[in-house]
Amino acid sequence: MIVAETALQERLRQFINQYADDQCCLLELLQFFGRYSHTRFSMLTVIHALNGRRLYTERALRHLIDKGVVKRYSENNVSLYSLTEDESLCSLALELAKLDWCQWQLLLGQTYSASG
Question: 63 and 77 in contact (C-beta within 8 Å)?
Fold first, then answer.
């Protein structure tokens, strides 16, 4: 279990180090899509789910789309977003969704200390 958590933390660290903006917003976005991996959401729904931080959420979402982790769909002229079906890309988000509150807080603490 500890080896798996360490591997997850290392994969996350490598992924978020590529992202220079609000890294905690990126983690929250990954966790959100991991929890609802087969659901499509509008931009406003995603922003609302991440406590209304529109600018950071939009930037993080664009980053995830560019990396292929999140896919954008268009239905009735409305853009919708969901986790990719590519298992190698979405596994990080799915693992994040499994973290309990204590593990999540530890990860956020490590993210802030590494970026600060």
Answer: no
Tell me what pLDDT residue 5 has: 66
For residue 92, list its beta bridge partners: none
**Run of H or E including 75:** strand 70-75
Total count of residues recorded for the chain: 116
Region 2-115: CATH code: 1.10.10.10
| CA–CA dist 46, 53 (Å, integer) | 10
Can you give the residue ranges of every domain in the chain?
A: 2-115
Closest of 30, 13, 37, 34 to residue 94, by C-alpha: 34
The pLDDT, as a whole number, for residue 4 is 66
- Sequence-ordered list of residues with C-beta below 8 angstroms from that of 36, at least 6 positions apart, any chain: 82, 83
